[in-house]
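Structural prep section.
Before we set up the soaks we want a predicted structure of the protein with guanosine-5'-triphosphate in place, mainly to decide which crystallisation condition to try first. Input record follows.
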Amino acid sequence: MSGPTPVHLLTGFLGSGKTTLLRRMLADPAMAGAAVLVNEFGEIGLDHELLERVDDTVVLLKSGCLCCTVRGELAEALLTLHSRRARGEVPFFDRVAIETTGMADPYPALSTIRSHPVLRSHYRNAGVVTTVDAVNAPGLLDTRLEALRQIGAADLLVLTKTDLAPPGRVADLVARLAAVNPSARVLTAPEATAEDFLAEAGDTPAAPADALPHHRDGNFRAETPVTSFSLEIEEPVDWTGFGLWLTMLLDRHGENVFRVKGILNLQDEERPVAVHGVQRLVHSPVHLERWPDGRRASRLVFIVHGLDHARIEASFRAFDAMSRRVTARGSVA
Ligand SMILES: Nc1nc2c(ncn2[C@@H]2O[C@H](COP(=O)(O)OP(=O)(O)OP(=O)(O)O)[C@@H](O)[C@H]2O)c(=O)[nH]1
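Run finished without errors. Recording the tokens verbatim:
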């Protein structure tokens, strides 16, 4: 192939719908030649499983956040893909889509691709697509610097969850987005096609360090770190008890639970069930076709702001034990 391979960066705050959008895009024939790099924040990587296309051109970048620790890993992954393509060791790809973590500042990834001495002769930035959650974004724009910088970097803003937000709120959000990034196109998720996703936007400008706020400005909550932890549960989980526990957790602490996602091994269910919580919003569970790694166990990832991991785990374990006792009593009766 001639010229550097285009790289499309998909970003957006935690739970804003990146994987959902990417899955839909990858089903389009226009994306058939795309290699995919997925970067996840959290100890258990699930997104590459949820994409449901697992071959050598889907690569999980494991360690932390794309903006800092993973820069080297990103460069290495892109270079490895390039050499493996040259040797015919992976299916041919003619573009790359990178899904960043929901906590990533996208500018360092763009600058890695633009400035890395070797990378820049093999790859070029083709565009940045940012998903914006119409339910949660209004609160995040006041408090999370990452959300603002993701919007600032976008060539295309894809509004997700407009089906769950009142139209007036969506209109207000569009006006706020235009104030942060007037040059980006704005589409709702159902409107966005693979053609939009792949539209060449030219090189995204270098980090507009002065145009966007810094940690110390406004109400941005950078002092308390956002942290993640995970739970693994071997025993099948009771769905009613789990649903009740999650609803209580998010009712009480939703503002500081940026993300809960995972796969549940439910009592009386053969297939795994994917669950997603985003702040106070709990999405409908979805059955998956197969168990990742063939291992039948529940795995949950939590991304929280200033909450005690051990207390959340203890409350889950207590609730789980209680619902098990109730189920056992019910089955004896
Ligand atoms: N109702 C509705 N739900 C959506 C929409 N887009 C995404 N979701 C749901 O939102 C939840 C989170 O979506 P993901 O695609 O996993 O979000 P993400 O940005 O990849 O999440 P992280 O990788 O954790 O940052 C899932 O339950 C999706 O089904 C939408 O437009 N409408």
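Observations: Residues 309-332 form the longest helix (24 residues).
Flagged for discussion at group meeting.
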